[in-house]
Specification:
By secondary structure, the protein is α/β, with parallel strands linked by helices. 49% of the residues lie in helices and 12% in strands.
Length: 316
């Protein structure tokens, strides 16, 4: 069985513990790069340069690193600029970057359903994320339906079917290579008739031909507009944190071709590049609805920006 459909295990530990575990490699890399940088009440230019380089190496990106450097340059460390004091300043600035974008998906559509298009390149964890998102909504007592709109990959349809059965939600699907817009049309009609709260639509993530993808998404939007002028209510891009700075280029492309309205960051548990979460927030300012730190069905959650900032900075 692939990772995409790996069975969720029990959840004996807390989300906070999993968060610390997920960002462990990132915080360790940052701590490693910060070690040895100590100063008096103020840091000199050479130390600030070293700190900025350390932040960039953790994939926080040059913009966030420059912003944090400015805060460190302005800081007056009454007890000396030791590693803990520097981490506290880094955490405070990361939290300031993340707070404006930490926005859970809210189900507010009327009439129902709220239609959420989910996009992302193959391998980003998109299919699994859709299942986790559906599970999260079910925990909030919303009814959920899935639509298999990524018809060009039989594996995607099969994986979504496995997850739909496992978490007990209906799935609207068609044949491999079928028309995604037709599937979305059928799904919206059924979800509307059944009074479903949330319809999550899996869509293709092929970037080899941007024009083809743009045309396909435009067709889906036209179909949705005939049934519900407000739909899609959300266009969510799933990003694989292990891609580091390459994930940022995906945001730029998908914003252009799909009108992305928010992000979900996955696979934060398998990378030392978790700082890309901060880079995405600083560079694009798009809502980050949730983060994923594992393979379990409940390993996708909205995040506390202050807690995540402290975790990235390596502060227990």
């Amino acid at each position: 069985m692939s990772d995409e459909t790996a069975a969720p295990t029990g959840s004996g530990d807390s989300w906070t513990q999993r968060l610390f575990g997920g960002f462990r490699k990132t915080s360790e890399r940052l701590t490693e790069n910060l070690s040895g940088i100590v100063g008096s009440t103020r840091l000199d230019d050479a130390q600030l340069d070293e700190l900025e380089d350390a932040l960039i190496l953790t994939d926080l990106g040059p913009r966030a690193a420059a912003r944090i450097r400015e805060s460190l340059a302005a800081a007056r460390f009454e007890r000396g600029a030791d590693e803990q004091a520097i981490k506290e300043t880094v955490a405070a600035e990361i939290a300031a970057i993340l707070r404006p974008v930490a926005k859970p998906l809210e189900i507010v559509a009327f009439p129902r359903p709220q239609v959420i298009l989910v996009i992302g390149v193959n391998g980003s964890g998109k299919t699994t994320t859709i299942a986790k998102l559906a599970n999260l909504f079910q925990e909030q007592d919303y009814s959920v339906m899935l639509a298999a709109g990524d018809t060009f990959r039989a594996a995607a349809i099969g994986q979504l079917a496995v997850w739909a059965e496992r978490i007990g939600v209906p799935l609207v699907r068609g044949a491999e290579g079928g028309d995604p817009a037709s599937i979305v049309f059928d799904a919206v009609k059924r979800a509307t008739a059944e009074g479903t709260d949330v319809l999550i639509v899996d869509t293709a993530g092929r970037l080899q031909n941007k024009r083809e993808l743009m045309d396909e998404l435009a067709k889906i939007r036209r179909v949705l507009g005939r049934l519900n002028p407000e739909a899609p209510h959300d266009v969510v891009l799933v990003l694989d944190a292990t891609n580091g700075q390459n994930a940022l280029s995906q945001i730029a492309i998908f914003k252009e071709v799909a009108g992305v309205s928010g992000l979900i960051m996955t696979k934060l548990d398998g990378t030392a590049r978790g700082g890309v979460l901060v880079a995405a927030a600083e560079q694009y300012g798009l809502p980050i609805h949730a983060i994923g730190v594992g393979e379990r069905i409940d390993d996708l959650r909205p995040f506390d920006p202050d807690l995540v900032a402290r975790v990235i900075a390596g502060i227990a």
